[in-house]
Write a structure and sequence with these properties.
Layout (H helix, E strand, L loop, with lengths): L4 E13 L4 H13 L3 E4 L2 E13 L2 E21 L4 E20 L4 E4 L8 H14 L7 E6 L3 H9 L3 E9 L11 H9 L5 E6 L11 H13 E9 L2 E6 L6 E5 L7 H16 L5
Length: 281
């Protein structure tokens, strides 16, 4: 009898900007995940636990947990001898734990946010804070950008009657680029730019042609190297669309992620193929 599928996995790309070589960066990330450190946020702590390195299809991955916990928690208990209720202090009580699997070479990460405790944005923020803290936040900047189902953003664009604004925020690729946005990526690398933003506005409506550089830059954002945001009208109403709203997801069984690695790898491979194939443009 098939098992109930009820866990949604999100895909993103971990981008780490630092003065390290590619191989040094991979080791820095792995070592950072293994450091005995935590990050305090309001009344809670966040940290990495159960970090393990493994290979799948000859590719190096890391699996682990981003754990949210409380240093001290009052818990109500029963005192059987006196037949009364009492309280005791529980140390390091786990509030929630988010599983993740990270492909070390590309930075592609699959993760399971926990609604109300470690939601999508919180996972990405706290994960990167911990990586930066491992280097005392000196010369290291980490960010997880959502990876979009490539066709979805362009399907969304086609539904706009008029596009008034197009904003594309990018940073250089890590570690490789693809032909469709290679020109932009090479320029950012040559200029040693860490972050880049371009904004287009028109009261008459912006025309986005498939051969335009801007079109390729939208693809770059969808590949996890930034964000593309469109504003305009659809069915006569003002609306917007963004690559962060169209994040690639996968439903898996509600069991440890490694037990679904065969299924997860199909999504990883789908992303890998974007860079392995030769784009026509």
């Amino acid at each position: 009898m098939p098992k109930h599928i009820n866990k949604t996995i999100y895909f993103g790309r971990l981008n780490v900007i630092c003065p390290f070589t590619k191989e040094e960066k991979i080791e820095y990330i792995f070592n950072s995940l293994n450091k005995q450190m935590s990050e305090e946020e309001k009344d809670f702590m966040y940290g990495f636990f159960e970090i393990k390195r493994f290979n799948h299809m000859d590719k190096a991955f890391v699996t682990g947990l981003l754990v949210k916990y409380k240093i001290e928690t009052d818990e109500e208990i029963v005192d059987e001898s006196n037949r009364v209720l009492d309280k005791t202090m529980i140390p390091n009580k786990i509030i929630a734990k988010s599983e993740f699997i990270l492909h070390l070479h590309s930075g592609i990460i699959a993760y399971h946010p926990i609604t109300n405790h470690i939601p999508n944005n919180k996972f990405r923020t706290e994960f990167c804070k911990l990586l930066e803290k491992a280097n005392n936040r000196i010369f290291v900047n980490a960010e997880i950008q959502p990876i979009d189902e490539e066709a979805k953003i362009f399907e969304a664009i086609k539904k706009f009657e008029i596009i008034y604004s197009l904003k594309i925020a990018l940073h250089p690729s890590n570690p490789s680029n693809r032909n469709r946005w290679k020109k932009t990526d090479d320029k950012l690398r040559k200029m040693e730019v860490e972050n880049y933003c371009e904004i287009y506005r028109s009261r008459h409506g912006i025309k986005i042609d498939e051969n335009d550089e801007a079109y390729g830059n939208i693809i770059m954002a969808a590949d996890g190297y930034g964000e593309a945001r469109i504003k305009g009208t659809r069915e006569g109403k003002e609306t917007s669309a963004s690559t962060t709203q169209l994040q690639m997801t996968l439903k898996v069984e509600n069991e440890p992620l490694l037990s679904s690695m065969e299924l997860l790898y199909k999504s990883f491979h789908k992303i890998f193929e974007r860079f392995e194939k030769n784009d026509k443009n």
